Amino acid sequence: MYLSADAMAVLAAEAFVAKAAVRSTCARHVRVADAPMVLVPMALAGEDGAPLAFAWGRGPSIETMVVVPEPRDRDEAWQGLEQLAEAVCAWLDPIAANLASATTSDGGTRTPAPAQLVLSTPAAVTFLRKVAYRLTHAPDDSPPVLRRAGGWLQYFLDRHELAPWDSALLVATKAVGVHWTLPLAQAESAHLLAVEACLASPGDAIAAAHRVEYEPGGTLTMPEFDEKLLQPAIEGYGKARGKSDREDCRATIASLLHPLLSRSYDATWALLEALRAIPPIPSVLADRADSERAAFERHHAYLEKGGRFAAKDSLARSILLLDDAEETLRKVRQDARATDALVRAVAASDGEALDGTITAAEVSMVKVTKKRSARIDLDVTVPGPWRPRGEVTFELLWDREKSVAFEVLSFESTGDGTRVRLRSANGHSIARKALNDELAVGQPVALVKQESSYESFGFPKTPWMLGGARA
Amino acid sequence: MPDSKLARKSELVIEQVVGATLAGETQLVRVEAPPGAGKTRLIKRAIAAALEADTPMMVAVQTNAQLADLALGLAAELKRGRVGIWPSKKASAQFGTELAQAGQSKAVRVLQKTKEVQEPTVVVGVAAKWGHHASTRLRNQRIDRRFAVGIVDEAYQMPAGALFRFGRLMDSLALVGDPGQLDPFTEIETARWDGIEASAVTPGPKAVAALSGVEASTHVLPASLRLDERAASVVQQCFYPELPFRAVAVEGDRRLTLSAGDASTTDRALDVAAQHGWALLELPARFTLRDDPEVADALGHLAERLLARNANVRAQWPPELSEGAPLTADRIAVATAHRDQRDRVRERLSAGPAASAVVDTANRLQGREFDVVLVWHPLSGRAEASEFHLDTGRLCVMASRHRQACIVVSRGGVPDLLDDHQPSGQRPKGVTEDREHDGWIAHQRFFDALSEMRISR
Q1: Is B112 on the interface with A (CB under 8 A)?
Q2: Is B149 near chain A, with CB under 8 Å?
Q3: Residue A471 clears pLDDT 70, i.e. is over it
Q4: Minimal Cα distance from A370: which residue of B?
Q5: pLDDT by residue (tens digit) across A298-327?
């Protein structure tokens, strides 16, 4: 998502030739919590959305496993879902309470880590969405924990659906796909075990991925396993009479599923470890954690008010969600270009960034509106050919708090490079000081495309436009 | 000679719209206008009438370029009163020259500060800026003025999420737009809002109609001033089956003349376009990468040959073209579906005589007008037809920007691709429109219409 189609094609070719995963970023762009909630859901093949088993944990090994011995039985399914729901609420309610208590009136800082849910593959996301919908719309006389857990899961799923680059819900295979280019087809890249094998086998990645393709890599078990082992076990459970027999059958099913769940859990954890090994950009991830925390708090407030998740979003809610997603996208892109040398190099080749050396700098006083203000003219020489992509405004990357935007006045080839003439779009009094420092001739300088927009405030109600009385 | 009866009818509708908007009898006025029907003219007329009647009016346009164009137009045409133009910082930076030129006129006052918005009777600004400053959660820089009338230009391209933000600033609303062009665009996945009558991404007019319950006074502008008869018949038939309109310019009103060319397919395509107003230049069928360099080269070559063959354009309107004038590069546009295609064409043209031709994506060319438009067909070289590439609005924008001629460049095999791609017809619950199916039909009709003007390489 950070690189252009051309750059992705080059990296894919490189990965294919090397038979290895090739890094497509220099830094880690997703947050990996110390103790995320890793959830491995498993569905019954051929039964849309029927839960077969769940395994979850906060560390390298499974902590809890829940098996639904007959997923087609509503009561059995609800029992399994209730156990999941209790675990979800037991995990998130204390975090929400902790966040609320950490918000002090005297400006105390909020340090609790934001909650992070980790799923293995996009298939797991699709399945969990069905589970969340079922929980959110549980019958009125069912335990309240079901609807509350559905509401919590909705937070992660909504955020992931609208802002898939967000880290609140991390999908292991997708996160790997952001940081590596794999020598695999698109479908293979969504197979958990294939991705794990690919990362673990440099030089043999394609064959390694092929070797595990016939093992469960999503939320479904394999047909042969179903036919020979699972189906007889489920039938045995259906025929069992007496509590003890049924428990024995349940244990048999659990023992069949446990290796599969463990394999998926371990593979998911291995991908997380691989991601953790990439150096993160602390300032960026901390900033992003703040915005996730704020979104989590908003969602918590909505749940506390008894907010129910209607099948359709209202206009106001859709505006809120869209604003949040667009703002996150802008920020993630801007951060990636600002902090990752490879991403910025690709952006530069597309005319959306500049990395060069200052060859001339001048500050002049001009009259902007009715007052005089400083304007910066910069000549930057970049190596190789360069041209801006459309009418782009560039933002200077520097440590000062004040941001400075530049427009490209002209660009011309110097033989082995390109001289780009830039002018600050607005005057800045700080410019004069910077001329002897960051903007001195000979200094390296980097600029990236400015992803600007107006700050969003939702929308003020206009009664007549919403069906109310005429003003 | 132009169809003066139709032109008068069009003028009459504009007068009716201006009257209905200012009279305040209805809270909601909706104007549906085909390409080049005179939306900008209508808005300028409404501004003049509001100034005359001293009726407070706010006007929202969609882009900085449209704001600058409108400012220049008002500076030249307003006879009485003074309109406030309220640019953003970015607009001031990008279009400083145009705004300064407009500001020298007595008819235009360029507003520098938010508080100045309180003063002029009519204020024109970009929709995003209105939306930001209308927020009640903004402490400083907030606008609390209430206008009697609000006009939104290109309203069908404006999502409800943007329109509703500044609704509180006006008592009544006039939405002016072209329902056949591209819907509002966002990079965010919006499938969850499919089938919802009013979400953040629903076109503004549809959301207002669904939520307000106010019966709109609807007007249709019946004529295109930009497209001539040859162009309007194709565009109406393919893209506006439910919005009948005709062209004011009848056959012979417009003429594109070229000096003698050679036997190349490029020159033959130009000759066909000069004669019929349309041409389809078909390159050998091949599946290609999106930014197919051969299509980019063909487009570049067409633009350069237009200039090399001393293209001359004549039209009854504007008056300076009545005796004919040389076609300049800046009156040629190249329309693409994707930004990488745009970049490839810009690169191709950069060092040549047609470097100042306007090359951009359909989204960015909406609302603009050129003499000759060269189109990179959205389905060219593709192995499959996606909803994005079948979008009716995208092809409609590309095929309706020209006054003289439109030349479409494509790989061969597109009709076969369309035949192979039967839209599924599957729609989310609650969705009555099938954009993919509509686009598929429009593409089929468009290719049928151009079949007689096809030059194969």
Answers
A1: yes
A2: no
A3: no
A4: B112
A5: 889 888 887 777 777 888 888 888 888 888
Statement: residue A98 has pLDDT above 70:
yes
The DSSP output letter for A247 is: H
Q: Which residue of A has its CA nearest to B132?
A: A454
CB B32 within 8 A of CB B160: no
Could you tell me which residues come within 8 angstroms of residue A203 by beta carbon, excluding any fewer than 6 positions away? Answer: A18, A19, A20
**Cα separation, B379 vs B387, whole angstroms:** 11
Residue A329 lies in a domain: no
Same domain, A386 and A258: no
- Do residue A471 and residue B171 have CB atoms under 8 angstroms apart? yes
Task: Please check whether residue B115 touches A, CB under 8 A.
Answer: no
- B364, B366, B371, B374 alpha-carbon torsion, rounded to 10°: 60
pLDDT of residue B1: 61
Q: Which of A163, A318, A459 sits opposite B193 (nearest CB)?
A: A318
Q: What is the pLDDT of residue B93?
A: 76
- Residue A466: inside a domain: no
User: Between B218 and A456, whose confidence is greater?
Assistant: B218
- Of the candidates B192, B193, B212, the beta carbon closest to that of A467 is on B212
A277 and A374 fall within a common domain: no
> CA Rg, chain A, in Å?
27
Is A313–B189 a contact, with Cβ atoms under 8 angstroms apart? no
Full residue range of the structural domain in which residue A111 is found = 5-310
φ, ψ of residue B412 in degrees (nearest 5): -65, 165
Co-location of A255 and A403 in the same domain = no
Q: Residue B254, CB half-sphere, CA atoms under 13 Å: how many?
A: 27
Task: Answer yes or no: is A349 within a domain.
Answer: yes
Torsion from C-alpha of A5, A6, A8, A13, nearest 10 degrees: 140
- How many domains does chain A contain in total? 2
Q: Round to whole Å and give the CA distance between B68 and B368.
A: 13
Distance (Å, rounded) from C-alpha A404 to C-alpha A462? 36
Chain B residue with CA closest to A469: the answer is B212
Residues of B (172-191) whose Cβ lies below 8 Å from A:
173, 186-190
pLDDT confidence of residue B440: 92
The answer to whether B100 faces chain A, any CB pair under 8 Å, is no
Summary mean pLDDT of chain A: 86
Nearest to B165 among A161, A459, A470 (CB): A459
Cβ distance of A465 and B208 shorter than 8 Å: yes
Q: Is residue A155 part of a domain?
A: yes
pLDDT tens-place string over residues B300-324: 999 999 999 999 999 877 778 888 8
Please tell me the distance from the alpha carbon of residue A165 to that of residue A126, in angstroms, as a whole number: 17
pTM comes to 0.82
Say yes or no: A386 and A302 in one domain. no
* CATH number assigned to the domain comprising residue A431: 2.40.30.10
Question: Do residues A305 and A395 both lie within one domain?
Answer: no
Identify the pLDDT of residue A3. 81
Among A291, A310, A329, the domain-final residue is A310
Query: Pick from A313, A464, A466: which is nearest to B196 by CB?
Result: A313
B128 touches chain A (CB under 8 A): yes
CA A132 to chain CA mean position, Å: 19
Flag the least confident range among A428-432, B132-136, B182-186: A428-432
Same structural domain, A261 and A395: no
* pLDDT tens-digit map of A44-92: 988 888 899 999 999 999 999 999 999 998 999 999 999 999 999 999 9
pLDDT at residue B117 above 60?
yes
CB-defined contacts A:B, below 8 A: 120
Name the residue of chain B whose CA is nearest to A425's CA.
B93
A53 and A99 inside one domain: yes
Tell which of B165, B187, B340, B365 to mutate to test the A interface (max A CBs under 10 Å): B165
Residues A138 and A268 in one domain: yes
pLDDT confidence of residue A305: 85
